[in-house]
Predict the structure.
Amino acid sequence: MSFEETRAAFFSCVLACGILGAAGCASKPTLLPANASVGRMPRAWPTPRAATPIAAPQIVAMYFSSVSVPRGTTWRAAFVTTSNVASMEVRTNLFAINVPKLGRGRFAFSLDVYDTPPIFLRKYRLRVIARNAEGELVEEDVPFEIR
């Protein structure tokens, strides 16, 4: 094999590795979890599950008024967890919300989405995090968009 052929093969290999590497770094689309509902509040809204204080926290059900939120609207969410969940957080790389606790295993918020700069109008991965008093956490990811 001549120098030119070796060089061409080398650069072809580097290009192929770069393309495959970039494809492997692409983020997977987030799917709506089975315990989440969007739009209308479900009629069969579950009750919190009893759990000991040191048991692993669980997110039993999630409700979102929308996962594609237009500017100038009110966005609502509610959560049912196990009884040992001490705190809930909803976050993206843009914002974080400490969800108010309504009672044992029940959390909810209502947020006015004001005019948002165009740079922030896009899709996000919404991370819903529940923690028990020991600090152990469980996370569910939800597709989310500000438009």
About this structure: The helical segments are 3-25. Residues 6-26 have pLDDT under 50 and may be disordered. Residues 64 and 77 are 4 Å apart (CA to CA). The longest helix spans residues 3-25.
